[in-house]
Amino acid sequence: xxxxxxxxxVSRIAVLTGAGISTDSGIPDYRGPNGVWTKDxxxxxxxxxxxxxxxxxxxxxxxxxxxxxxxxxxxxxxxHLALARLESTGLSLRILTQNVDGLHQRAGSTPxxxxxxxxxxxxxTCTRCAARTPTREVLHRGEDxxxxxxxxxxxxxxxxxxxxxxxxxxxxxxAAIAWAAQLFVAIGSSLLVEPAAALCRVAVEAGATxxxxxxxxxxxxDLATEVIREPIGVAVPALCAAFAASRPA
Length: 249
Known about the structure:
Blueprint: E1 12-17, H1 36-39, H2 49-54, H3 56-65, H4 78-88, E2 92-97, H5 103-107, E3 114-116, E4 119-126, E5 132-134, H6 135-140, E6 155-159, H7 168-180, E7 183-187, H8 199-205, E8 209-213, E9 226-228, H9 232-246
Parallel strand pairs: 1-2, 1-7, 2-3, 7-8, 8-9
Antiparallel strand pairs: 4-5, 4-6
Helix pairs in contact: 4-9, 7-8
Enzyme class: transferase
Keywords: Metal-binding, NAD, Transferase, Zinc
Protein name: protein acetyllysine N-acetyltransferase
């Protein structure tokens, strides 16, 4: 594809990614027609922080469901790889991801240039002493409600559950990146979860162009200069290739 007019002269891009960018890697999304919570609404309750801490049964169901959701064996797909290649051209590219699967980093994106707004499934944190353990180690223990090996506290994957507040320092960095961007691209996100979705408005109010690549309508479509409904695995590589081709030799 040719680079669209809204992409010409752009040197600073911020990308917000949601679950839709990882479905081609075999990681199900949450709210889509075949999403985890759509197919089994009861699973939604397992991601409530208050219930997770208070109810042993909730934690047991959570840990039983986790292996199918944590994406340890998943591989980056064409969209992840395309974004990493675009960064390697020297373009100023920052990724703000709602995903917890680590696939951007595994695709080759510079870790410090990827902000994991909702945490990472790769590690597990003790809710009492804050000790961290690789999640795979916890799963390999085979316990239905694992406890911290150091203090016996409740363990939770290092992700933000419903009822938890996002790291304010991290959110501030994300807002600063959105504010400084010339182009803000939201990929594979329902844009229903705040405050991450509001980064679209932050970028637009600062003068950035907003482009949304998503299968379904979002609450921010009216703010976008362009909404792309093509499959993410097609649209993102094509757009990244167009940007790369426009870079000075």
